[in-house]
Amino acid sequence: MKRDEMGHRCCGKHKVKRGLWSPEEDAKLLRYITTHGHPSWSSVPKLAGLQRCGKSCRLRWINYLRPDLKRGSFTAEEEQTIIDVHRILGNKWAQIAKHLPGRTDNEVKNFWNSCIKKKLLSQGLDPSTHNLMPSHKRSASSSSNNTPKPSKTKSIMTNPTFDQSTTAFSITNVNPYTSNKPNKVKSPNQTTIPSQTVIPIDHTMSSLLNDENMIPNWSNVDGMAPIHEQAPMFSSEKAVIGVEDDDLNMDILFNTPSSSTFDPDFGSMFSSAMSMDFNPMDDLGWTF
DNA sequence: AACACATTCAACCGCCTTGTG
DNA sequence: TCACAAGGCGGTTGAATGTGT
């Protein structure tokens, strides 16, 4: 069955339109929400005069009609934020989107799947763990020509390096971010990443550490393999005995082996981030 | 110009969580 | 405590569009 045919499975209704929204439908929904708000999404279609289900209206509003949405390509800063937060939270798109004002979870998810994932893979990084993939480790150490087969999409980022002293992720020889979507209008204010950019961990980390959803879940980070399954990024692979879970998860978080090197500057930065006032990101909630 | 293939992203699906009676 | 409805979210799909040959 085609998407634009009538009928809907989620709500069991049959006279519900599906598929792309027409400008008229958008106008109806926008007009209704801006004047009445949405106390109950299930009642919105009827009240707004739309043959859509409530879920569809909610999605359309959140992903497209909301007036605070940011349009255009993701900036380099946004991209880095996504990478940083994804490394910690995994595929928690809604949580990641909270750190990017004006962006939706759907947008972040699509950007990840269509762009960032490929970049990481082209660097030999596992997109789910952000660690160097075993095959890439071998090729890197043996300097063989076992490089990933170039895809049709040109690789944008090359030669990632890791600044172990600050646990910051650095990127060398990075070209300005360009959308992979060809011939689409590109944002006029696209930013350029300097050839050697070291993104400090503080801004993203402090907001993460303040996130109400972060603190209680240190030991249960989705998308992260248990510590004994983590592929260590650095040389030390010694087992860690008698270390608290939180310590282990700090290691997961920053990809440094437990009880090995610890940078005092990073330590103070991290502890200051931990001591910051609790100030959870608001959930972009809309009130009328 | 025509076709095949690749890519993007809006929208849907289905599961899980939360609120309410 | 349970059942139900509604909302929220991540995964997936497929139409639209771009690119290569």
TrEMBL record:
Residues 13-65, 66-120 form the HTH myb-type domain. InterPro entries: Homeodomain-like_sf, Myb_dom, Plant_SW-associated_TFs, SANT/Myb. CDD domains: SANT. Signal peptide: none annotated. GO terms for cellular component: nucleus. The keyword Transcription regulation applies. Residues 141-155 have a biased composition (Low complexity). Residues 126-160, 173-194 are annotated as: Disordered. It comes from the Eukaryota. The keyword Protein biosynthesis does not apply. SUPFAM superfamilies: Homeodomain-like (SSF46689). GO terms for molecular function: DNA binding. PANTHER family: MYB DOMAIN PROTEIN 55, TRANSCRIPTION FACTOR MYB26-LIKE. This is Uncharacterized protein. It comes from Brassica oleracea var. oleracea.
